[in-house]
Amino acid sequence: MRPLLFLVAVSSLPLAAASQWTVDDILLAERAAGYQISSNGKLVVWVKSQMDRDKGESVSHLMLRHLADDYEIQLTRGTDSSTSPRFSPDAGKIAFLSARRPPGEGAGAPATPAPDPAAGPRMQVWLLDTRGGEPYVLTRFEKGVRGFGWIDKDTLLITAAEDSSLHEQRIKERKDTAQIVEDERHEPPVRLFRFDLKSREAARLTTNTDRITRLVVSPDGAWAVTSHNRSLRFIYDQKIKPAAFLHDLKKATAARLFADGKLLPTDIAFSPDSKGFYFSAPYTSHPIYNNAAIQLLYYHDLAAGRTTPVPLDWENGLSAGFAPTPDGFLALLANGARHRAARYTRGPSAWTRAWIEGDHAAGLAGIEITEDGRTVVYRYSTASVPEQLFTATLDGPALKSHKSVTSLNGGFRKKPLAKTELVYWKGARDERVEGILYYPHNYQPGRKHPLVVMIHGGPHGADTDHFGESWGEPHQLLAQRGAFILKPNYHGSALYGLAWGESISGGNYNELEWIDVERGVDSLIARGLADPDKLGVMGWSNGSIITIELTTRTTRYKVASAGAGDVNWISDWGNCVFGHSFDDYYIGGTPLDNPQLYIRKSPLFRMDKVVTPTIIFFGTEDKQVPTEQGWQHFRALQHHGKTDVRFILFPGEAHGPRKYVHQRRKVEEEMAWFDKYLFGTAGDRNEALKPDSPLSAALERARLGAVPATVARGEIEIGRFEIPGRSSSPSTPLTRSPTVAETTRPAGSLSKRPAAIANG
Predict the structure, then answer these.
(1) Helix, strand or coil for residue 659?
(2) Is the pLDDT of residue 757 over 50?
(3) What is this structure's pTM?
(4) Helices in 565-621 by DSSP H: which ranges?
(5) Does one domain contain both 734 and 627?
(6) Per-residue confidence at 352, pLDDT binned at 50, 70, 90?
(7) At what angle do helices 513-526 and 542-553 cross, to 10 degrees?
(8) Are 248 and 257 in contact (CB under 8 A)?
């Protein structure tokens, strides 16, 4: 038999544009965090994080920007992360945390405790000189360092867990891996230590039996404020509240603050003169739970020993923090999707407020400021402008002469970015709902495009007008495929005031949110933007919960992606780490008191209505939305057999994948699922076969129904057939994620392909 060679004529087949977005553009993006400006305003240290593809996880390194000379140096390298950099008071040194092993350890020096994989990385304090040189390790706490602050240029204040007790040592000797849940009696206390840089010795300052979770030191090094977790079950039921203590470091004394438990400090910052400190604290109308609250601001005067509310004159409270100045503070106020930046100045008898002015005023986040109140460092972005760090001069309420500190993700400038805008519609109670709309890269006025609803978690979270491409929110990959993306801030979201946040509590959970989403979709259809026949929905955590709810309420969504979402609230109450506090607050009561309510609220018992092809993602170690929820969702859809379902588990991952290979798998699987069921651009490729194998060629010929004419050329027969061309629109790129082949199909249809892919 003669060998057969096929020539395939392809018309109008597009080439992959170099400017197209890829999965790695998103996963390998650079990010800036953990920044601080030196007291003299000349230096900015910041943490640059990026996924290390070889290591398989994100790695963070310290960067130092010299503002006057406008140059930058990288301070740390390697595959071990460095975080939490803090300048010494004289700006001559930088202390930071890292779990790296010191090179050589040094002859005769005590070895740094080896990391225990079960306990996670054990951070130690490292030190480097801002003039240059290698960093070196300072501390050698057996269980690592939790936090630190500078007292003076030669002394640190450190929080660390005590060394192993006799009880722990004996368990380790027996190689006993049993776990006692919420073993308060044997949980190691986290205490306060004074550390001398010259002698390298630590002195214990406190004998508390609970766990210090936050430490803030005053600029003059005379005072410190600590927050303490007093109950291992607090996250579950919020009954035994955390406590705050004020430490007089000169007298070595400590006094509890707010003993009535009504104020629970979150962010804490001393005034530049060290005469007092500001702190934010949640405010809610609920007597027990702080699940949905607004953040108010307070000031504690050290000399008077008195705490007073700071009049923000803003109903929604704080959003993204505050930064003290010599005469008051800068604040970012909750204002929906866009923060409102303000400067507050303290007068003889009252506070005055002025709105921040300048090119970046509407996109500020994460403000840090020098003690003299003159130089500010901050993050700036919008949903369609990638984030960078900037410095600026603060002149009254105006930000002037801003300069970029970072030049992150230079490759983004070569790629199309989706246009974005804020959109509004009437929600479940005819109240205004706000959302962010991303436009398709190939948007054409007057043309209807597919729409993907991307729903944030929480529920007391929010989508803001800030750039945020990630494995969980791949906006550009969807916009590149020709879709609008709608991100609704539904009832219960943060940043819209107390009434909005609390609106879904007390039994209203998932009574309003899905309606908000539906009406938002309707509004875009009415505007002629969204194609009503090409709708998709996706979300993670609470966003997944609403996604699942929608699939049980309507059949109009052609595809759904549900990451770490609940379907059965009865089991969630006992298995979730915050099951009681969440479910009692939002659902209203417990399943022990009202099992029928929990059954009615659980979409598990409505899965017979689902016809939307659904892909499910979970980490095997998820305790926030227990992995069993995914299994129940998967099995219920399998049982009813009315739609395709695919279930992806990420081994060793908690509430969201952290490893590169898992993040990549998530995005590729998700895009393939949407290509198949929403965009109609994915074939039913058999992944068991090599694309260039003879069997693949034969199956492809059979799929096309083409029997080419052949002509003999010596010992070879040449066959020719033509494949119809495709549009060169960005919505149908040449290179796509491979089609998922292991889809579980409805009962009774295992021998035939789903209608959605019958035409290839």
Answers:
(1) coil
(2) no
(3) 0.88
(4) 569-575, 579-583, 595-601
(5) no
(6) very high
(7) 70
(8) no
